[in-house]
Amino acid sequence: MAFAGNVDELALLQAVRLKERVGSAVLAEHLGVSASSGQAAYDALITQGKAEEVADGKISLTDAGLKELEDQLDAERVSIDEDSIAEVYERFEPLHEQFVEVVEEADVPGLKVLDAKAADVFDDLSAFVPRLSRYQDLFADALAKVDAGDTKWIAEPVIDSYATVWNELRQEMIALVP
Length: 178
Known about the structure:
Layout: H1 9-19, H2 24-31, H3 35-47, E1 51-55, E2 58-61, H4 63-78, H5 82-105, H6 108-128, H7 134-147, H8 152-155, H9 162-176
Antiparallel strand pairs: 1-2
Helix pairs in contact: 1-4, 2-3, 5-6, 5-9, 6-7, 7-9
């Protein structure tokens, strides 16, 4: 559902929940929208009482925002084939074990191999839950920055590093699996 700033409201609410405390610039980058769209969505969440400022320039969801998020996630789950999502998750879990090793060692070549292996899983996941396709762009962005020599994009927690994106997508998948 389009929201303020032409942002998908479910993706927006879920991003705020997953990040816990987030500013408009990070939301815009995470959602792949302009800074002005990110700010419009941020402001609308506050105006509608779905989020509140918790720190300088950062918001968290209110109880009303969490309720709206759960309602929208429930509606989304109804349209998803549970068996297909379970199969995608079964293919993902062995990759997660490899991911943990790669990140602990900050193994750039291993990260590239893992990314290539995970591509089919993420393609299938995106086919079943189109809202999650944005994560593939976030993986590509983080990997490009790692390739350029900036290794903080492997696992830095306060940015959309490869590890941050992976863990957020894993949380999304766990919530979808019956």
